Amino acid sequence: MSLVAAPVLADGCPEAPDISAEMAPLYEELLQAPDEMTARGITNRMWLLWDNAPDEPSQEMLDEGMRARAAFDMVRALKRFDALVNYCPFYAEGYNQRAFVNFIRQDYAAALPDLDRALELNPRHIGALSGRALTLIALGRDDEGQAALRAALEINPWLVERRLLKEEPGEEL
């Protein structure tokens, strides 16, 4: 982690750290992974980077929201993730986590804009890509969901969601 102060955005939240140098080899490793278990280990290392919030207050909001979600306190989780995206509107993981809570609550219409925003901020976020695919499918937008799933699988061919992929005419899965 750099000791140089990051530019301040929003209500005092610094810009999310640039993790592209750390992520690039992980994306390459995913494409070379020989099996699902190896890929899962690589994505776990990615989550450690994505879950590293810009500063201490945002990290606390993220951690509290994730603990609340794990305890099935979705109301508290949403409040923490709402606070996080309001405080750090340029931190993709805040949107991704709020979308996940809404997905669990089956509020797919609320999840989709957060997934879209997470992907605007981090286009290669595998969790947001696969979450977007699942959300679109749940909304009955199957063609869009299949396209989103294909985009996610281009980055991580071992996603468990690959089982939802439908064969296109002339294609073998």
TrEMBL record:
Under the heading Pfam families, the entry gives: TPR_19
Task: Give the taxonomic lineage as stored in the record.
Answer: Bacteria, Pseudomonadati, Pseudomonadota, Alphaproteobacteria, Rhodobacterales
Start and end residues of the TPR repeats are: 92-125
- Which UniProt keywords are given for this protein, alphabetically ordered? Repeat, TPR repeat
Matching entries from PROSITE patterns are given as:
TPR
Protein name (database record): TPR domain protein
